[in-house]
Design goal:
This protein has about 220 residues and is an alpha+beta fold. The protein has seven helices and four strands. A four-stranded mixed sheet has the order 1-2-3-4, covered by helices on one side. Helix 3 runs antiparallel to helix 4, helix 5 runs antiparallel to helix 6 and helix 6 packs antiparallel against helix 7.
């Protein structure tokens, strides 16, 4: 629904890394604003959306920083309706990749820790709500990204972890098998989450990709 899309806006962000905004971000904006029936609700929804987009950007900036400090140029950071990615100009070694992939969730966990420490000391009202919300958003992003499926960071880190103990082919098969099981169970899990908690994620792990990995096809 919110797949990667054409760039509608770009600017140079932190560390001099170009940031591209995809057109599908407009769908996300419309979705959030559609739930507002009053100026106050629209304000809260806009803050919520801004924090999500900002947290995704900082997550990808973590990947970019880890890429740059290892001497690998970064082409751009892309932010779109379904998330984001950090694109580099050349590939990295498995050891370099470990730091690059891990830094995204580490950034989110760091924001969660700082926001969790300071929000009780904020004055009651909008600011306290915003800081507390920022903490929960980043905790969710960190946990969600550590699920061991592709293309999430957890799936990549699991694959890289296996490479320390086994061959590339075996690591791919094991990572693909684990990812396939989670992918198959994802739809009923999302159904239960929506019916019991009213919670829904616009993300579905690619079953075909994990099937090919399990069968040794990169």
């Amino acid at each position: 629904m919110f797949g990667n899309s054409n760039t509608i806006f770009q600017f140079r962000g932190l560390f001099g890394v170009p940031v591209h905004i995809g057109s599908s971000i407009l769908l996300l904006v419309l979705l959030f604003l559609s739930f507002g029936t009053s100026p106050a609700q629209l304000l809260y929804n806009a803050i919520f959306l801004g924090m999500i987009i900002g947290s995704i950007y900082l997550h990808e900036l973590g990947h970019a920083w880890a890429t740059l400090v290892q001497g690998i140029p970064v082409r751009r950071i892309m932010i779109y309706g379904g998330g984001g990615f950090c694109e580099r100009t050349r590939s990295a070694t498995a050891r370099q990749e470990e730091l690059i992939v891990a830094m995204g969730p580490i950034v989110n966990l760091s924001i969660w820790a700082v926001a969790s420490l300071i929000w009780p000391y904020m004055p009651e009202g909008l600011l306290m709500w915003a800081v507390n919300l920022l903490a929960w958003i980043n905790l969710f992003l960190a946990i969600f990204n550590m699920i061991p499926v592709q293309p999430l960071d957890g799936g990549k880190l699991f694959h890289l972890f296996l490479l320390r103990f086994t061959s590339q082919a075996m690591a791919m098969r094991i990572a693909g098998g684990i990812g396939l099981v989670i992918s198959v169970l994802w739809l009923p899990a999302m159904y239960l989450a929506y019916t019991k908690l009213g919670f829904l994620l616009f993300f579905f792990p690619p079953i075909g990709l994990h099937w090919r990995m399990m069968n040794g096809k990169p």
